[in-house]
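Here comes just one.
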Amino acid sequence: MKLITAIIREVQLDKVREALIEADIKRITVSRVSGHGQQRIEEMYRGQVIIPDLIPKIRIEIAVNDAFVDITVDTILKSARTNGTGSVGDGKIFISPLEECIRIRTGEKGGTAI
């Protein structure tokens, strides 16, 4: 089992979510987060150019069985890229081992709980 965490642009959320549903991945968690990396956005505030420290992003978390890791990552990669080719600020994907998963309602454990 793996936990896939993707940080993407806010505007790409619908496209990524629809692509995941098409790939038969329907159980996701979405959070609004802020952060910064290499992406720089300039904004105008009272006539002055400012560069905000934190940029709003979306974090998607998906717990999957090992067989679905490549499918999930490939789907996110294809759908989260800006203009299909990608640009600075498109985001990152992290894959972490998932030690245990327990469904609260039934008490199921492991891959069947996902």
Notes: Strands lie at 2-8, 29-35, 43-45, 48-50, 55-64, 91-97.
